[in-house]
Amino acid sequence: MLLIRCPYCEEERPELEFRNAGEAHIARSANISGESDDDFEKFFFIRSNPKGIIYERWRHMHGCARFFNAVRDTVTDKFVMTYKAGEPKPSKLPGVAK
Amino acid sequence: MKKYSVFAIAREAMRGHKGWEEQWSSPEPKKEYDVIIVGAGGHGLATAYYLATVHGITNVAVLEKGWLGGGNTGRNTTIIRSNYLYDESAGIYDHALKLWDGLSQELNYNVMYSARGVMMLAHNVHDIQVLKRHVHANRLNGIDNEWLTPEQAKEFCPPLNTSKDARYPVVGAALQRRGGTARHDAVAWGYARGASARGVHIIQNCEVTGVKRAANGAVMGVDTTRGFIGAKKVGVVAAGHSSVIMNMAGVRMPLESYPLQALVSEPIKPVVPCVVMSNTVHAYISQSDKGELVIGAGTDQYVSYSQTGGLHILQHTLDAICEMFPIFTRMKMLRSWGGIVDVTPDRSPILAKTPVPGLYVNCGWGTGGFKATPGSGHVFAHTIAKDDPHPINAPFTIERFRTGRLIDEAAAAAVAH
């Protein structure tokens, strides 16, 4: 089971308190009905599914119930960091090369 | 290839078993092939086998980064069924089921396909409605599926707890009698032996690190840990790693990879005569011919390539198993493991041409690809050989996520996701 640090509660809590909410930083168009089929497919269905560093959303379902973002390595399942929703995608990751 | 038979066993018994030959050869990779298949699991090897037997294309290499059948082929719970809801799914899964019947004879290899019946339990009114809908839809498609009362379910599977005060009461069940299990390793080995005998090169410990494309965009071959290997046609059958390989060719996929776990118990005498699935509490169980209970759990909730999963997932499944089969509460579990499954948004596979000329993909089987192995290989070989899909896999395109013509088994595949 993963230990996840909620950036709002500022505590590491067991995974059972959380729900994964998929890839992060996928912006929903302000004019969704005006999207082309290609753009809608990219937004709705296509995922980066990386082997390595992933940016993903979590929700502290059985805690503060708030959404936040996390950076995790999908090979080791180790979290690099978590940060609050709305904060920019971190460009530098602590302890990660490149 | 020497034929396996009772006479071969007798002959070898007489001379100290010195005459058995290797089941497949391990040649050095050539510089160029007509077709390269990425991934030597069941689906990839079946594709190579049918390319050779049905389409006469034998200048084929199957590249495998690890060992043959060491991915999800060796990690699944070997359940075979075709009771899917939609016509497209019924078409492809029942195509596979028909090939399972007779596969041992075709391959001259005992894949131990056992049509012992797959029974899906209903625990509440909603389950009854869903499963009865499946029964009717399946029968309209000519696929056997029948409704059982709790008493009939108990008769079909005696260790099942059907008492009224059970934590998960059994209020009915859907039974596909042609469903069952097969020996997963033997499926990979049998296809490998058949393909190798016809000239297909199976190259293990050879990881694909890049996909080379010509100036016009068409595929030229693949970079591997054993150098560049050329081919005008490349079929990607890499399960959980399909999107990784497709990214090398510049194609982004509607896939996410999750860990899926299974476990086996200590071996005991025959007690579970069929496959029992419960989608509502998410547990399924069968008994291998060795006597181990083979138990499948659910996926973890996050993308991962770790081939391991959370212990709480297994615990949840075992909780359910022990409620449904109180007889097993004191059994010891021997091993658990995880495999990485590639899941599409509509939970149906993708077997199709891609936007890249000469690149084909067979992926997205998610949590239930083993059952489709023969059918998947058969129609994918057709797709590669003819550069055009077989009518059975024609609906399983990548483009369906743009056009919206989904095959939405997500809620219909009769398993919880």
UniProtKB/TrEMBL annotation, chain A:
A GO molecular-function descriptor: sarcosine oxidase activity
GO biological process: tetrahydrofolate metabolic process
Pfam families: SoxD
Protein name as catalogued: Sarcosine oxidase delta subunit
